[in-house]
Amino acid sequence: MRIAIVGAGGIGAIYGAALAKAGVEVIFVARGAHLHAMQQQGLSIEGDRGGTVIRPALATDDIAAIGPVDYALLCVKLWDVESAGERLRPLVGPDTAVVTLQNGVDAHERLIPILGRAAVMAGTAFVTGSIVAPGVVRQTGTYMRMTFGELDGSMSRRGAALADACAAAGIEGVFSRDVLVPIWEKFLVLVPLANVNALTRVPLGRYRADPDSWALVEQSLGETLAVGRAEGVRLPPDAERQGLAMLRSMPDHHMTSMCNDLLRGNRLELPWFAGKVVELGRRHNIPTPVNAFVYAALKLHANGAPPA
What we know:
The protein is α/β, with parallel strands linked by helices. It folds into two domains: about 180 residues, 3-Layer(aba) Sandwich (Rossmann fold), CATH 3.40.50.720; about 120 residues, N-(1-d-carboxylethyl)-l-norvaline Dehydrogenase, domain 2. The strands form two sheets. The chain has an eight-stranded mixed β-sheet with strand order 5-2-1-6-7-8-11-12, with helices on both faces. It has a four-stranded mixed β-sheet with strand order 4-3-10-9. Helix 1 links the parallel strand 1 and strand 2. Helix 6 crosses helix 12. The longest helix is centred in the middle third of the chain and has 21 residues. The mean pLDDT is about 95.
């Protein structure tokens, strides 16, 4: 089995290292100092699950040189989906599955016009990490799950094989018959988290304890749920309760990547979070006032810190 990790950052590097340690041929696609360090010293994963070193690590920035693979795990940011999709054409053979592991809900839709529906497998990641030095990724928490599924709902041979590879690597690999449900269940939590964290710039415990801020969380989640159901996603009847329960269970110190990117003056995934909820609300004539406010309040920062 050959697996390409397209985007060897805080998500891709962790999955890839676990799979490589289990004996899978893993090729990491990276760039810059991170790539150079992986080529020279290997890839190191540290953190709450312990340490792993992959040496040598197969790493390159030349996708065309890799050739067709069995799976390509697409772990780039949401704004890079189309450009990455164009570049990874050489990886796609007749049976290749390109698994989208972005945080939003539409990465698979955006990839289909580029690679064709048969090549795309939708998915979602549940692992947290960040590059702390070139060639070094720190994992936060011990959880490591990957959910994926065919867009036609079939229980394919390639999906079952990926689930087996995940199990051998210590990853909770969930092969879902209706993968849009777990993708949207995660989105229900991510949108209000990102929205209110970015607005307040304080950790979850602070805005969770404030009734006015928490009301924004609840309303943002409700709007997101409404547009998801209007899209035809078969979310469970208690999806709102489950989403709020997860938000209440998360640690006080939690900060989202969107808030951290905002504080650092980096580009934001805002258009695919609050912006996507607003877009779908307009499509289905569903009011989304909280998400519309967040989008309007932050959109001038969406491409990085605005000029002074």
